[in-house]
Amino acid sequence: MSTNRREFLKLLGTAGVVSLAGPVPALWSQAIGAETKAPGERVLVLIQLAGGNDGLNTVVPINDDSYYKARPGIAIGKGAALKLNDAVGLHPSMTGFRDLWDTNRLAIVQGVGYPKPDRSHFRSMDIWHAAHFSERIPNGWIGRLLDQTVSSSSTAWEAACIGLDKLPLACLGERVVPPTIQRLEEFRLTHSGRDVAVVSSPAWKQVAASASGSGELDFLRRSATAAVTSAERLASLSQEYRSTAAYPSTALAQRLKLVAQMITADLPARVYFVSLDGFDTHAQQLPGHAVLLSELSSAIAAFFADLDEKNHGNRVMLATFSEFGRRLAENGSLGTDHGAASVQFVVTPPGKGGMYGTAPSLTDLDDGDPKFTTDFRRVYATLLERWLQRPSEPILGEVFAPLDFA
Amino acid sequence: MIHFDAPAAAHLLRRLQFGVTPAEVDRAVRDGLHATLERLFTPQPESAEFLASQAALKDAAVATASIQDLKAWWLHRMAGTANPVTEKMTLFWHNHFATSAVKVQSVPMMVEQNDLFRNLGAGSFRQLLTAMARDPAMLVWLDGNANRKRHPNENFAREVMELFALGLGNYTEHDIQEAARAFSGWHLRDGRFWFNDSQHDDTAKTVFGKTGRYDGQAIIDLCLDHPACPKFLAFKLLRTFVTTEPSGPQVERIAGLFVKHDLAFAPVLREVCSSDEFYAAEVRGSIIKSPVELILGTLRPLCERIRWPAVRDLAAQLGQDVFAPPSVKGWDGGRQWVHATAWIQRWNFLSDVTGSDRYGHFRSEVREQIQQHPREWVTALFAVPLADTMHTAISALAPDERLPFALSLPEYQLM
User: Fold this and answer.
1) A331 with A360: CB under 8 angstroms?
2) Model-level pTM?
3) Beta bridge pairs of residue A89
4) Distance CA B223, CA B179 (A)
5) Which residue of A has its CA nearest to B354?
6) Cα(B66)–Cα(A116) distance, rounded to whole angstroms?
7) ipTM of this predicted complex?
8) Are the C-beta atoms of residues B263 and B166 closer than 8 Å to each other?
C-alpha cells in the first residue's frame, strides 16, 4: 500500500463512524473501510467535447476531393495536416496526439454515431450520456455501471466529475451520486469559528444519514453524505501537486492534472468525467477550433506523460466523445452547422493505437451529413467489457460487438 | 377542502416568495387562503425606501454598464419587493427564455428584457412570445442578424419550437428549416428590432403541414395555436412552482387551465395555488431549492444589512449566475443543483450566515425569537417535517449550535 493511501485511511478514521442505513447510500462512503482494495485498478477517463466537434477538420480526409469541394473556406490543407496514413491526417494543432499516435497509443474510431441522428445539442448529448433513446431518461451509462457494482458482491465502484458545474447525466445512477469537483480550493468545508465543520460532527452524520426518506429527500441524503466523505478525503490532497510533466495553463490541462493527482494518490474512483466546452463552431471556425484541439491534445499528452512517469499510465484509458459531428459543407459564415457522425479518440496502453471503424463516405450523405458506420455503443461496450471488465449488456440494454482497441 | 394551517401557509409562501418568516405565516393563516392569494396576486405598493434603493442600484448599473451591478440589483429587488410573485415569475421567464449577457454584452438590453418579463410575464404568453421574438437581447443572443434570405440561420427558429413554445418531439427538422426562412430579415439595427425587407424570404413555407408565405409572426401564431404549447407551459409551470416530476395527468389538467385562460400565466398559477393537489403531502418539499431560493430564502428572514455583491458572487458560484444562464436551455435545476462541490459551498454559506457577517448581519431579534419559539421557526424554515431523532439531536446541542446544525440538514435544501 502506498504511503499516500495509508495517509488517507488514517485521515478517514474519523469518517468511519458514519452509519449508513437504508439501501446502500452513497459512493465515496464505501471505501472508508476498504483497506483490502488494492490500488492499481484500471481507470477510465471520459472527456466530453461539448457543442459538437467537427470530426472532419479534426481527423482530416486528406485525399478526399469531396471534402475540399464542400469546404472551400475552412478545409485543412493536405500539406498542413499531420499525416497519419494515406487517407487521413490530424489537425495541425494536435502535435500531442501525433506523438501518442507515434507510440502506438492513439486509437481513432471513425464514423461514430447512432441511427436517426438528432441534431439538437441537448437531446443528442442526452442520448450519448444515457446510451438510451427513450423520451425521459432517468440515468446514464456510467451511473448504471456504478449501480451494477453496488448490487454485486464486490466493492462498489466510484466515479468523480472534474471541473463540471453540474452532475452529468452520464454519471447519474439510481443508487449513486458521484462527486463533482471543480477545484480543490472550492472543496474545503469552512468552520466559521467552530472546531470542525457542522457536517463533520458525528452527531450530524448520525442524524443526516440515518433517517429514511424517499424521492428528493432520499437523493439529498445520499448526495450529502457522499459530499462530506469526499470533502474529508480530498482535504488531505495537497494544493501543490508535483509533476515534471509540462501541463499547459489551459482549463482542461488543470482538470486533468487534478485527475492525475487523484489517480496517483490511489483515490478510489474508477471513472473520471471531464468536459471541454466550445465546439459549437457555427461561425469563423478555423481559429477557435484550432485553439480547442490544441488544448485537448496538449492536455492529454501532458496527462499521460505525468502518469507514465509515475508508473500509472498503463492502467488508464481515456476516451473522448461529442454529441455529434458537423455538416460536410461549410455554411455561409465560415463555420459548420450541426451534423451527425464524427470521430472518437481513445488513448490506450501502448500497442493498441491505430484506426478503427470505417470512414464514412462523403458522397453518400444523410441530409448533408456523413452517415455513421460504428454505433457509439460499440465503443462503450469495448470500454466496459474489455477495459473495465464489466458485462456491458445489462448497461447498454443489448449486445454490441467490442472493437479491438482494448 | 384545503386545511390552510401554518404548514400549508408556509408551503404556499415558500413557493410564491423568497423565504418565509413566522410572522408572515401567522398573517397568512389569519387572513385565510383566499385573501392571501388575493394579496399576493394584486399589485402592492412598494415602500419609498425600497423604491429609492432599487432605483439607485439600477441607475448605477446602467450608468457604469456593469452587468455585475445589475445582477446585484435584481437579487436585491427579489428579496426586498412587496410583490415577490412578480419577481418569481420574472425569474421563471428568465430561465425560460434563457438569455446570457455574456453574449449580449449590453446592460441596457438585459434591463429591457428583464423589465419585459416583469411587465408581461403575468399576462398572456401570446403577447410575451411575440415581444420576445423582437426583443433586442434575444435577437443578439440567437443570431437574428445572421438570418439572411440566402443564408437562413436556424438558431431562433429551433429554440422557439424546442425551448420556448412546444418542446422536443412536436416538430420536425424540416419545420425548423422552413420557420428559419420566415424569420429571415428579423434584424437588429441601432439596438432596436428592424424588419430588413431586403433580407426577408417571402416565398412559401410549409410548417406543421400548413403552407403559406409565412413571416415570423405567422410562425409564432402557429406555435401559439399548436396543441403542444399549453402542455409545454403547464410542464414548465409545474416544474418550477409545484413539483420536480409532474405526472402526465397533472400536465394535462394544467394545460387545460392554460387553454381556459388563453395562455395567461398568473391566473393559471393562482388557480394552481388554490387547488387541493398543490397542498398534497407529496408536493410539499418536493423541489430542491435553487441557489437563489436557498440564498435569498435564508438571508431575507434571518439577516439584515445584506452584502449584495457577496450574495451575487455566491449565487454564481453555486451555479445560478443571473443574467448569465449556462445555455439557452436555462438552468436544469432539480438534482443538478446539488452536486458535491455545490453541497460544500451551500454548507459553507449556511455556516457563514450564522457564524460570520460575510453575507449580512444576523438579526439579533431573530436569535431570541428562535430560542423562544423554535416550533414556529421550524415550520417557516423547513418544508418537510424533521424526524424525532433530529429534534432530539438538536435539543442536545448548545443553544448557539442548534440553528447551524438544523440548516445543514438535507431537509433544509427542500422547498
Assistant:
1) no
2) 0.81
3) A60, A83
4) 10
5) A192
6) 45
7) 0.93
8) no
